[in-house]
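Figure S7 source data.
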Amino acid sequence: MRAFVQTCDTIAATAKKLEKIQLASELLRSLPLKEAARAAIFLTGRAFPRNDERVLGVGGMQLYRLVGELAGKEPGHLRDVYRQHGDLGTVAEQLLGAADRDGDVSLSEVADAFRKLPSLRSPAQKHALLSSLFARASASDVKYIIKVITGDLRIGLKENLVEEAIAKCFARAIADVRRANMLTGDIGETLRLAARDALASAAVTLFHPLHFMLAASIETPAELFDESPGAFLVEEKYDGIRAQAHKSAGQVKFFSRTLDEITEFPELTEPVGCLPGTFILDGEILAWQDTHPLPFTELQKRLGRKQDQMNLWEQHGVPVKFVCFDLLYRDGETLLDIPLHERRARLDNLLAGSRDSHMQVAPSTLCHSSDRMTELFRASLAAGHEGIVAKAPDSPYTPGRRGGYWFKLKEPFATLDVVVTAVEYGHGKRHGVLSDYTFAVRHENQLLNIGKAYSGLNDKEIAQLTDYFLRHTTQEEGFRRVVEPTVVIEVAFNNIQKSNRHSSGYALRFPRIERLRPDKSVAEIDTLDRVAQLYAKQFAHAPLALES
Ligand code: AMP
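Tokens for the predicted adenosine monophosphate complex:
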């Protein structure tokens, strides 16, 4: 442990990421391979690799008592030192260090103790094992053993930096190291593969969940086609729980986005279990009644239920459905790198024989224009979904990554009816027309500005408004014109922030014009009170048990 401990202390002492990586890589290089693999796991602050579900079963209180006992200190004394550091490992080092101990245990001895701990039933047995390990260790060894047991080294070294240290140590590409670590879920195994130059051989392991591929936000379909013209596969954006289903030899498990097992929906096991072969599916669990989806709040009622209540819920609770949109693995073949359209074809093929109403493949439409995408977006909202997800048809499945290939367009948070108070000439092809609009909400007899929007209207509408505003300008301020407050527009936005930028004290994030509202007068526009209500509503969502 001595080299490990010294390296950890040095890593903790520097704030520079590159230095941390360098130090960790030097440690890994200095150790025999077996020990280096162990060190890599411990450096991530874990006793076992990420894919290993074993837990040590040693509580903080138990460690606290053990440290007190070894140091021969009263609980009161321990409490004072703990308050000083807030970290039991550091407390142990301070108290045991003062006791002038000298010892050294090896990384293998520590790993061996960790291997035995989960199978020991009684706290007394665990206590005895740790007590004997600590008795042989130095005060600093104990510090880091405790930190690993409690799950955080607190040296500013997360798993992604350990990956970088491995890449550096064996001169391998970081992308290859990350990919192997993602697939194996074992940073120790990743290190061994890097040492043998065999990172490419890493494969998916059934019942070890992969990180989920994520979507980046877009505000409008046009944004997508402007940046990367071409076609996109458009799917509905479901308001449920993202889930990965693994199936092999009659066994089925579902995993959540946090890579925890989902056990709340037993009625989904059979339909997945009936499908042929071994596979991993990606999709969304949705509350579903007859022909339409139900809101997430309905699904939420079934989360966190105890096992004995589940059958009851299965019979009487909110019905659910697993809508699959990707296939990551089938019968020994990892499919992450084949194009999405091919994965979808294989998914259709896998589910072709399934007639179970609890499962379906997510419908998808190949879309070539932003107008068509807008239609699909509206249709998805009308069908009760959250929006759409547009996916590049040729893209690989990139676990844990957001952006690049998948894009989500969500239902706007809300819209506000506002009045235009000032206008400006646009940029680029819009430099000759008044296309940037500052707008206000009402507060008693005043108009208070809340934002500025320059997208959403077509060229004809902008030309007409330019003509109108030129004739209804009340004040010219260089490039800006204050206008009569008569043109009412409806604006969409992503959220509301408090801000000093505008006289209302609020600002809208990503505002865009939904449409002109010639049917509304300035007396009918939204008020500052409504803005305050919408602002408060953003924080009204209770924390969810699972991320959707
Ligand atoms: P958000 O939660 O708004 O960040 O959106 C990302 C989430 O959308 C993903 O984690 C999925 O749970 C969910 N989602 C819903 N429908 C789809 C779909 N068709 N494809 C991919 N993700 C989807």
